[in-house]
Amino acid sequence: MTITPWHDHADFEIAERHQLDKEPIIDFDGRLLPIAQEFSGMAIEEARSLIVEKLKTKGLLVEVDEKYTHSKSFNSRGGGAIEPQIREQWFIDVNKQAIDWKGAKSSLREILIDVVRAGDIRLVPDRFESTYFHWVENLRDWCISRQIWWGHRIPAFYREKELQIAMKTPEGEGWEQDPDTLDTWFSSALWTWSTLIDPDLAQDESISFEELLRRSPDFQKFHPTHVMETGYDILFFWVARMILMTTFMIREVPFKTVYLHGLVRTRDGKKMSKSDPLTCIDPLESIRDYGTDALRLALIQGTGPGQDLRLYPEKLESCRRFANKVWNAGRYILMNIPSGTSLDPPQNVQNEAARWLLHELDLLIGKTRQGLEAFRLSEVIDNLRSFFWGTFCDWYLEMDKRPDRNEEDNRVLAYALSTQLKLLHPYVPFVTEALWENLEQDKMLAKAPWPESQGYDFGESHQKIQLVCESVSQLRTLREKARLGLNQKVDAGIDSEPHAEVFEIHSGLIKRLARISELKIRKVPATPSGEALSSYFQDSLVSINANALDFSQEISNLQKQLNQENQFLTKSRNKLENPGFLNNAPDQVVLELREKVDSTEKTIDALKKQVIELEQLAN
Description:
Largest sheet: 4 strands, mixed
Helix content: 40-55%
Low-confidence stretches: none
Strand order of the largest sheet: 16-15-18-17
Radius of gyration: 36 Å
Mean pLDDT: 91
Shape: elongated
Strand content: 5-15%
């Protein structure tokens, strides 16, 4: 077997194991050395075909395999082939027992393992711990010198056989600095603490490193960092190196938590990369066309920790529409509440719709805090977006559009808007800050205190308004099925034995939101009459006149829904008849399943009656 230990990583490993000689074959210009005899001085590509001809002439060429594939490195920018060479380099010994760590001598590699395994540093998501340990447990000495012209110079100076490591050229003649530069990741690894040092104090070389840290206010306040955020693809290249350098220099971890985000990809999943500009979406163009807030949202929504993200114009446009919705809703509220309205949490609220909103808002504040603390950033903005656009704009602002509005309503609106601006600010900082400025506050929104739950527990009011909202949704759905336009009002009815009083109290709101001319509410069992199009929900039945309905299509839709409910009922009954499930499942789970079965049975009965009703109407 012929090997070239000087020019191939695998061959070098073989030579090291078997103590073989290593000899260079090409120089640093890619030309063959005298050992190549008549081919000496030739470029590799030029000599290759001539060597093949020589082998043929000597009868030594047995076979040529044109389909043979192997691994070969190329310069990603210039395109030229990369030929490995053995060179004298600077290394960091990661296995030397030389560091005082937790009362014992440790190596850098052992410290890298300990800080994560002991929980001093947490990786989010934790599935990357296995990747981290695989790299670190197999860590070799780190080569920190590079033969490139940019970067920090190696602080080593030579004079004949003398070597000095110094920040400045030593005194005397004949000193030459090492031409190599430090590895980019070596320089980057210093970031966690070097950026926090007082730059003026750093100029004083008489101050010790420990004193420099002690007298630097930013370092004392901000080190270690609470959360370090970066891409999972540089977990080893940057995160591990920062841990290595900081634990060595300062004897403490550089950060408490590492949040690893995914890669940005194209619509079809290709990685966006500077080396392939056609894959990239220019952020400056995106900001120009969609806004900075929209770009920020698009980079967060739809992805969890460590998950890749697909970015494309339609997603940016969707996020732009939401930012625009926040602006328009905020401007509408500012035009409808008196200037100077208090943003403090309102007390003794009487309006039931306002109580419903405050109850929902308190739940949102709690879920947002929990989500952010757990780094579920996408889930949080999904909740905030759904609440603002749906609960707040589509429902509450429509409920609030009435002639008898009062001071309480203004305070609820002001508090609800300001609270949501605070919750949304980390995601859409510019539009929320602009609206906050219009609320005439002394401090910027960025400096405002984070919202806290106010203990708004209006469970009864919340349940009542939820019923009202569902009745409106059901009536709107029936209008769509009957192809009734928004301008066409229709008579409707609601039959409900347990909830008739709630519907009666809020009948005006239901009529306004569902565009109903006459609403007849009866405290009777929810039973289809066969005289109108109806829909069943929560022991209630809403119905409208529907002469324009395509009955055959609606019957088909109801049959599909009926099949789905029947499938769920069958599976649930099988579980409840299974002794293994009953013995192993928590009592609460069994109880909830029984309640779902009861509810599903009622729904199936109502759907069957609706099918019969439509069949009668169709005939």
